[in-house]
Amino acid sequence: MDFLIAFIVGGLICAAVQVLMDTTKLMPGRIMVILVCLGALLGAIGIYEPFSKWGKAGATVPLIGFGNVLYQGVKDSVDKYGFLGLFKGGFTASAVGISAALIFGYIGSLIFRPKKKV
């Protein structure tokens, strides 16, 4: 049952993004930024935690989850280090995910040898 809920939640997020892409002039990069900011906002007002417990991986994998990770990292770091935590927290909390994306992206480029578009 948990798998089904995660599948539905993730699908609904993807469907909402597709509707945004089809009905607005927003480019994919801007929509991605909106999702990250939405995750941070939902975390700040306390809605993201119950949503992620209910939606499981469907709520935590998309960019909304990344925004919440950034928010939580900054919040914890500001509590611990004060003003300087604003600059440290997001990087500390998301470093593993960002590093993995860069490393696997590089490995993928070595395997598939992408060509430059002319």
Structural features, described:
The chain is an all-alpha fold and 118 residues long. It has one domain (2-112). It is built from 6 helices and no strands. The protein has helices spanning 2-23, 28-44, 48-55, 57-60, 63-81, 85-112. The longest helix has 28 residues, at 85-112.
Ends apart, CA distance between termini: 48 Å
**Helix vs. strand class:** mainly alpha
Biggest sheet character: none
Q: Look at the structure and give the mean pLDDT.
A: 85
- Counting DSSP H or I runs of 4 or more residues, the number of helices is 6
Low-confidence stretches: none
The percent of residues in helical segments reads: over 70%
Count of spatially separate domains: 1
* Rough outline: globular
What is the number of E strands? 0
Radius of gyration: 17 Å
Strand content: under 5%
Q: What's the order of the H and E elements?
A: HHHHHH
Question: What brief labels describe this structure?
Answer:
single chain; 118 residues; mainly alpha; 83% helix
